[in-house]
Amino acid sequence: MQFKLDQHGHLSDIKDWHKSWARHMALQDDIVLTDDHWQIIEAVKKIYQLTDDTPPMRLLIKLLRKEINPEIDSRLLYQLFPDNPIRQASKYAGLPKPKHCM
Amino acid sequence: MSYYQFIAPGWSEVQWKSHYLLIISRLNFDLPVRLIIMPNALNDTQWTKKQWNALVLYGLESCQYLDQQPPILAKSIDWETVNKQLRQNTHQLNHICHWQNKQHFKAWLPVVKDQDQLFIYGAMNHNDLTYIFSQWPNDDIHIVFNKLHPHMANDTQRHWQQLLQQRNIPLSWN
User: Closest partner residue to B28 among A47, A51, A56, by Cβ?
Assistant: First the structure.
């Protein structure tokens, strides 16, 4: 697959985003995307569309608990996205690197 | 206890950005935030509609305005009510002002009451000081002539720090 990436390895143009692209990028990080992953990715994408930014971790968890499952916590997010949940979920969602991530 | 964040007139682009990040950080740590929008503050707002929406999404406790309605659900309020809210647990406020100019100083005077204390720092000349003393309702004024690091260094500044630590309801004019 050939896609234009930015200097942080995120998709340059969100219009190029496709689920198969996300699966491909996740596989490069040794992650097989499941329904649980997709719930988080879709939530991050939705928040980005509403706010023009990716959410900080604790605020994401607060919203996920409200919208999806009150049991969600940071441990679960790190199980799904071991490197950095916000960063990885944003990347697979086709969003730019979160501003608050180093 | 809620944290009151004033949206003040004359903010620079950097101030709009930094205050936005400050509010998001507070909400991120579950600290309740209430916005109070001062008159003319929205004349040069740098927050997008989506940024305002983000504050609501992330749990902004309330938003109140004195004359210009923001692009989110907000309640009109007057200065008397603002003062009542700020003074729920105390009769005295410690106003901490980084001196900018007369206009900035004047904009904050509606939240000043007779018994309040002023801590002021920054680059002030004789005229500025005359103005400050003429406007403040009492002599409880503490000045540090150091615009960058008022909390550090010499004895005067340490005294200032001690005074601040004794009182517990500060209000930063920023």
Answer: A56
What are the chain B neighbours of A54 within 8 Å (beta carbons)?
none
pLDDT in tens, B72-131: 999 999 999 999 999 887 888 999 999 999 999 999 999 999 999 999 988 889 999 999
Which residues of A are catalytically annotated? Answer: 101
**Domain count of chain A?**
1
Min CA distance, B24 vs chain A (Å)?
8
Give the neighbor-by-neighbor strand order of the sheet with B3-7: B3-7, B33-37, B62-65, B75-76
Reported ipTM: the value is 0.81
CATH number for position A43: 1.10.10.370
Under 8 Å between Cβ of A16 and A94: yes
A99 touches chain B (CB under 8 A): no
